[in-house]
Amino acid sequence: MADVFEIVRSRVRAEREEDMLKLRPAMIAAVRARFPELIEAKLIRLDDGLWLDIVRWSSRQAAEQAAAQFDQIPEARAMSELIEEIVSFEHGTDAEPRAAAV
Predict the structure, then answer these.
(1) What pTM was estimated for this model as a whole?
(2) Which end of the chain is more exposed for a tag (fewer CB within 10 A), N or C?
């Protein structure tokens, strides 16, 4: 089964970006504790000031359950309070699962 990627583009309140970066490791750890299917999470600051969060899950079911229960996790709820806007939220499947290194 191919991994599932969750791609979230968001705008963080400018005055809270430092707070978000400090809270993120604890939030990822708390989500992973509840959903061990979380494989990895990568945060990218785009040139336009938006943030791109790319989260890899072992299954779509786990990704969807985590999204549905996100605000029930205190560390995740604290992170949500720093977000000004979710611009987009998508799921997709790895089109090149476990491809051999070239």
Answers:
(1) 0.87
(2) C
